[in-house]
Design goal:
The complex is a heterodimer. By secondary structure, chain A is an alpha/beta fold. Chain A has 16 helices and 20 strands. Chain A has helices at 3-6, 23-33, 78-87, 105-118, 165-176, 196-205, 222-233, 247-257, 264-273, 282-294, 310-321, 336-343, 364-376, 397-405, 419-430, 439-457; strands at residues 10-14, 39-43, 49-50, 53-54, 68-71, 92-95, 124-126, 132-135, 140-143, 155-162, 182-187, 211-216, 238-242, 277-279, 302-307, 330-331, 356-357, 382-386, 411-414, 435-436. In chain A, the strands form four sheets. Chain A has a seven-stranded mixed sheet, sandwiched between helices. In chain A, strands 15, 16, 17, 18, 19 and 20 form a six-stranded parallel sheet that branches. Chain A has a five-stranded parallel sheet with strand order 2-1-5-6-7, with helices on both faces. The longest helix of chain A is centred in the last third of the chain and has 19 residues, at 439-457. Chain A is elongated and about 80 Å long. By secondary structure, chain B is an alpha+beta fold. Chain B is 30% helix and 30% strand. Chain B contains six helices and ten strands; from the N terminus they run ααβββαβββαβααβββ. The longest helix of chain B has 18 residues, at 169-186. The chains are: A alpha/beta, B alpha+beta.
Chain lengths: 458, 218
């Protein structure tokens, strides 16, 4: 199921346009530029060629199997296209325009009519009121954004389901900067038909996806969501950003989506019970999803810290061991053997106590030895290591070294800096090592690996 | 076990005494007590005692003047019983042993239109509403859920003992599991179940006050 949506052999765009101001242009342009290898059919009765592809007058005229139809027409014109899709047995239709249930009773009626038309047929609908879908592995980019305005992430292992289209696009644009990849992006919009639970179930079986990030403002059926979440979480990790925590924002969300808000304390309990990691903003959502896609979950609480900057080590220690403004875990108590062995690797004014400080003298070679020693200490359940590119003995060789050791122990990397720092972060991402540009984000990633590890052990 | 008890509470209006009897039968401790219209000669209860009006209609007993506590002897009991009868001539009166000491907590079950039944655990006392020291899970819960709930509220600070007060985590978890089990068996007719306060003294957890609100039949 859903495979034809994620990996369609042919795509038709109804409302494709050569007018650059139209969404029907952007969607087609994005699809062409993403390098999609299947068949593309622009549909527009008033056009000859669009972007060099001959346009069809209607869906009927295509005369071949269509796996995915994207409708980019005003709301009032959508019904007849849906009827055509049902007749042609198109499996998936993405309805981009707004003007449905989110606008009031008239739009709601329109949406209901679509629901009736597809009911009992093999045609499934995404949307309406969606910014589109993006499946980088099959090179399907059907987002409505002008291609020169938004960057899209490369193919990766995080599936991203978002109830809000804009938040989804903005987040994808941001992570592209660091080469963070995704396996799929789906903006569900008004969720007339397809909703989170079905996508979660599919993604749990999708080999390209290692973790799932979900943004929701409201839930169609909270119980069903809970059951699915719990089931999927036992297979692969799901991170949930659920907004509407305060009554004021819940009201905004319910106006936005027309759904009834629940007490956030119940939502919180539900997420814990389902073993889902809760994110509170878009940064955490992707940080945690990335951590769980790449990192090694664990159950202990002893964290070793390795740094070349003393202050960074101390602040990290605070964040590791504090309940408030921290993750409430503890610093691993290193064995005497471990400390003796580390002492031989570092300068006399460095620290062999946790947090271990190699000082500005720290080299890629000393990282290699110390990470090896820490990996062998049973008191160490996870390692936070910094890769700080500002000192002379540090270079991009650190990435391979950390990559090697992260096969034996859970490791999360902190990188602080600008140009060189960003370069390192991109390298770590390529090697699938969770790395973050701040102390706090680095430490929180450790907690996420711990929480998911504990859930999986239950 | 839960199903039978839940069925027995489904049809008729449920007084606090009936609810407590039901709780007792699923292994939850409630104070020793009797319910009567006339004061019996020999109660078989130890002082101090508490008097409560027993009626399915009166939900806020204290506000209605339907609770008297700290009754120390037979003379006082007879006086107070008479006052209670004058206030509530048509109701039965519940006489219970008074439980002192321990740590106050709250356990509740409520219904959310999105998630259905959930169970709540909170630290008790007069500041509960103010401190919002509570945590929720969807019903049914398992033992790990129950233990996690305890860890999420301040009650957990008593697990290792504090000034002679203590909480047995396993006993409290079992208590939560029983409430979850009963509420789950009640299912569709349950709107709200309030066990407030509960008194926790080591492994002994006593429900001092219990309320059941049923859903309007639809």
């Amino acid at each position: 199921m859903l495979e034809d949506l994620f990996n369609p052999g042919s795509v038709a765009i109804v409302g494709a346009s050569s007018n650059q101001m139209k969404i029907g242009y952007a969607v087609l342009k994005n699809l062409v530029e993403s390098g999609y290898r299947g068949k593309i059919y622009p549909v527009n009765p008033r056009s000859g060629d669009i972007l060099g592809i001959p346009a069809k007058g209607s869906l009927d005229q295509i005369g071949e199997q269509i796996d995915l139809v994207v409708v980019s027409l005003p709301a009032a014109s959508v019904i007849q296209e849906i009827e055509a899709c049902v007749k042609l047995q198109v499996p998936y239709v993405v309805i981009i325009p707004g003007g449905f249930s989110e606008t009031g009773s008239e739009g709601r009626e329109l949406e209901k009519r679509i629901g009736k038309i597809i009911s009992g047929t093999r045609t499934r609908v995404i949307g309406p009121n969606t910014v589109g879908v993006y499946f980088p592995h099959s090179r399907v980019n059907m987002a409505l954004t002008p291609p020169d305005r938004v960057s899209f992430p490369p193919a990766g292992e995080i599936a991203f389901i978002s109830q809000s289209g804009a938040l989804g696009l903005l987040t994808m644009d941001s992570i592209s900067e660091y080469g963070i990849g995704i396996s799929a992006f789906i903006n569900l919009g008004n969720r007339l038909d397809l909703e989170e639970t079905e996508l979660l179930q599919y993604l749990s079986t999708d080999d390209r996806t290692r973790s799932i990030a979900v943004y929701v403002e409201s839930l169609r059926d909270g119980r069903e969501f809970y059951r699915t979440l719990k089931e999927v979480n036992a297979i692969k990790p799901v991170v949930v950003l659920k907004s509407g925590r305060s009554s004021a924002s819940a009201k905004a969300a319910s106006l936005h989506t027309g759904a009834m808000a629940s007490d956030d304390r119940i939502v919180n309990g539900m997420l814990r019970q389902a073993g889902a990691i809760r994110a509170y903003n878009e940064i955490e959502l992707l940080d945690y999803a990335r951590t769980l896609a790449h990192g090694m979950p664990f159950t202990g609480t002893g964290v070793a810290i390795l740094t070349t900057a003393g202050g960074v080590g101390v602040i990290t220690a605070d964040y590791v061991s504090s309940e408030a403004r921290g993750i409430g875990m503890r610093l691993a108590k290193l064995s005497e053997t471990t400390k003796d062995r580390i002492r031989k690797e570092i300068v006399s004014f460095g620290s062999v106590e946790n947090p271990i400080d190699l000082t500005a003298d720290g080299s890629v070679a000393s990282y290699d030895s110390v990470l090896g020693i820490l990996s062998e200490d049973e008191a160490v359940d996870a390692i936070i290591t910094y890769a700080l590119p500002q000192t002379p003995k540090m270079d991009t060789g650190i990435v391979d070294i950390i990559s090697k050791h992260s096969r034996t122990k859970p490791i999360v990397v902190g990188v602080i800096g600008s140009k060189l720092g960003k370069k390192l972060l991109i390298e770590f991402e390529k090697m699938k090592i969770p790395a973050f540009p701040s102390i706090e984000r680095t430490v929180k990633a450790v907690k996420v690996l711990h929480d998911y590890g504990c859930y999986r052990r239950r | 076990m839960f199903r039978e008890i839940a069925e027995s509470l489904r049809e008729r209006p449920v007084t606090e005494f009936a609810l407590k009897t039901a709780l007792r039968s699923i292994g939850i401790t409630v104070p020793e007590g009797v319910v009567c219209t006339e004061l019996p000669g020999n109660l078989g209860l130890s002082y101090p005692l508490v008097l409560k009006v027993s009626s399915a209609e009166i939900l806020h007993k204290t506000e209605a003047g339907g609770v008297m506590v700290g009754i120390q002897g037979r003379g006082e009991l007879e006086d107070k019983f008479r006052i209670m009868k004058e206030r509530f001539p048509d109701s039965e009166i519940m006489i219970e042993e008074m439980i002192n000491g321990g740590i106050e907590g709250i356990v509740g079950v409520s219904r959310d239109r999105n998630f259905g039944l959930s169970i709540m655990l909170g630290s008790g006392g007069i500041y509960t509403e103010l401190f919002q020291d509570v945590t929720f899970r969807l019903i049914p819960i398992d033992e790990t859920d129950a233990l996690e709930m305890i860890g999420e509220v301040s009650l957990s600070k008593f697990v290792n003992g504090f000034r002679g007060l203590g909480i047995d985590k396993a006993a409290l978890a079992k208590f939560l599991l029983r409430v979850s089990g009963l509420a789950g068996a009640m299912g569709d007719y349950l709107s709200q179940l309030d066990l407030n306060p509960i008194r926790i003294d080591g492994h002994r957890i006593t429900v001092l006050d219990a309320k059941l609100i049923k859903r309007q039949s639809r």
